[in-house]
Amino acid sequence: MMNVYFNFYIFAQSAQETAEETKELLTKITTFKVTQALIIILSCYIALRIIDWSIIWVSEKIAREWRLRVKQLLPFLRTVVLTTTIVTLMNLFLNLSPENILAVTGAAAVALGFAFKDFASSIIAGIVGIFEGSYHVGDRIKIGEDYGEVVSYGLRGIRLQTPSDNIVTIPHSKIWTESVSNSNAGELEAQVITEFYFAHEVDIELVNKILYRAAHTSRYTQLELPIVVIMAETPYGTHFKLKSYPLDARDEFIYATDLTNKAKQAFAKYNLAYPRLLNVEQNSQP
Amino acid sequence: MSTVLQRFKTWIFESRSSVFSWYTKDSNNLQIPTKSLVELPPDLRKKLIVATNELSDNPSDTEAIRSCIDESFEQWRDRPQNAGNSIVILTSPVMIVSRIIITILENWAEEKQISVKVLRWNERPADANEIQSKLQQYLEQESQDTTSKKPEVVVIPNLNWCFLRSMDGLDGIDYLQKMLLLDSERFWIIASGQVTWDYLNSISDLEADCGRVESLPELESDSLQAWFKPILTELSIVFADPRLESQILEGNKDAETIYFEDLTSISRGISVIALRAFLASICYEPLDEEEDLKSGVLKAKSPELPNLPNLESAHHYLLYFILLHGDITLPALAHSIGDKKSQVRKHIKFLRGEGLVEEVNEVLKINPIYYPKLKQELLNNNFIF
């Protein structure tokens, strides 16, 4: 019986201590403070909108060579605004003594750990991503099955604009588990590989000349970067890869189309032989 | 130090013009290159145009080209096996020096006692497929005419006409490259635009097969002043007070000196740009507001370059291709860029309307006065120069 009373006493004591600690941690909540907090949150939202809009607007208006650099400011500025807002709100409602900061951090960590595990993981990955530089706004990246241009860098994830003009949202936490393939890594140009297949007996020198010329004459080609043709023998024919860079990575698909179009017209002119899938032909015969 | 000051001066002029235009942009207003000429009284306008048409090529340009040709030719004649058998003269892409070269070589052949063969093309062959065959026909025909293997000079006054940036338009350059290496009995004089040269060099290392490559030097303000003297005297042109920044930077110099220093600075020392900027700076000022137009004077205001209109990516490609080819017809441009003629025509209509592109006898050219700013715009958009 004594034990029960003792335990109850200890529990009551501990509850009282927790209540006192919480009281100590929280400042007095007044209508004025709540109004201030609402104004701060609203200002933060407006600031984020203005930053998003102005950075994108400026980056699309200025010279192409500065586009990516300006866009890369976006996640940094968003982080600054969000951090400032959170610190201001904490300062408004909490007594931020060193002990209290420790208590809040511990409590927040536990709460986040259980309730918002994935969300917290994405936020931390987003912050790590800013310093690691796995991707920036304007980069053309592939994460998992998704490929496209990073058009926004949010708190939880990024948005990719795919070649078919879809917007795909990917959480930052993907960088913990998935490989990130970045085509241009902050540069304006990204390599484009255009592939061609020919029969084994094709005139290799002529094909090489045509492929180089297609790259040299396409309006999209960045001639200051290397243009290379590589080839490989396969069981069904000779496989050529034309590796070159467009002036702007955004033009990669139209560039590959232009190269293919130019090259195919020349191949038709010289009547070059394409590979023949013998097995398919044999199987299709009655 | 003087280069830094020069750059600073140019930056001030250009920034001023851009900032000013930001607040005063009116799409209904005429652009600077045409504005002031239209506003001149008709008789004075006519006189001014006649006087500029009669202006000979800038003597400094002529002298620079002559000395380049003489020096490299003498080196080749003294040591044909060791010295390079060609001289390439590079100019701004808005400047064509074929007329200067042909004038220089009129008496030169007799003076040097050597036969000179000039590729007398006035334009690029209409069919890009025929460029190589026409070049071959011309050069091999000429060599058959010579019964013995005597040294000769072959002149290509405008390399821009020997190629088209298309799948079938570069065979002529391959052929020329082969010929340059083949025959040490021939000395080649080639003139080309800088953009053309950079392009051909990047795709075929043309410079490796050529001897000496010289860029036309920038003109000095004294040279420009002397060149314009006949027009200034004939039309009694006076000079307006210089802009404040020019007065601060130039000190106690007189208005005419400051004007020509400013003109040299904005035109980058290129005569054809200076001529257009000069024309754009001339305005008419009546001596008495109430009297008739005949009592006024022509006044040269501080020269400035017009701002570029807002350009789209498609315009950048077209403008770069026109600069690359120097001059080009619309069908050839459409073939080269790989777009439909109607699409190209639509964009060219806009560019002509803005004054960036000029069309003379169905041949498109960049208006020289826009070249300095256009070059910067294209550089900013990742094009190579």
Topology of helices and strands:
The complex is a heterodimer of chains A (286) and B (385).
Chain A (H helix, E strand, L loop, with lengths): L1 H24 L5 H31 L2 H8 L1 H21 L4 H18 L1 H16 L7 E4 L2 E8 L3 E5 L5 E5 L2 H4 L2 E3 L9 E7 L5 H14 L10 E7 L2 E8 L7 H18 L8 H7 L2
Antiparallel strand pairs in A: 1-2, 1-5, 2-3, 3-4, 6-8, 7-8
Helix pairs in contact in A: 2-3, 2-4, 8-9
Chain B lengths: L1 H23 L7 H8 L2 H13 L4 H20 L7 E6 L6 H15 L2 E4 L11 H16 L6 E5 L14 H12 L3 E8 H11 L7 E4 L5 H14 L3 E2 L4 H7 L4 H13 L3 H11 E4 L11 E4 L12 H13 L2 E2 H8 L3 H13 L3 E4 L2 E4 L4 H10 L5
Parallel strand pairs in B: 1-4, 1-5, 2-3, 3-4, 6-8
Antiparallel strand pairs in B: 7-8, 9-11, 10-11
Helix pairs in contact in B: 2-12, 6-7, 9-11, 11-12, 14-15
At the first level of CATH, the class of the largest domain in chain B is: Alpha Beta
Lateral arrangement of strands in the main beta sheet of chain A: 4-3-2-1-5
Outline of chain A: elongated
Q: Give the chain pair forming the largest contact, with residue counts.
A: A-B, 23 and 21 residues
CATH-level-2 architecture of the largest domain in chain B: 3-Layer(aba) Sandwich
Whole-number count of domains of chain B: 3
The share of residues in helices of chain A is: 55-70%
Strand content of chain B: 5-15%
Poorly predicted spans of chain A: none
Tell me which CATH architecture of the largest domain in chain A applies here.
Answer: Orthogonal Bundle
CATH class of the largest domain in chain A: Mainly Alpha
Individual helix count of chain A: 10
Oligomer state equals heterodimer
Provide the gyration radius of chain B in Å: 23 Å
Structural category of chain B = alpha/beta
Distance between the termini of chain A: 96 Å
Reported by name, the CATH topology of the largest domain in chain A is Helix Hairpins
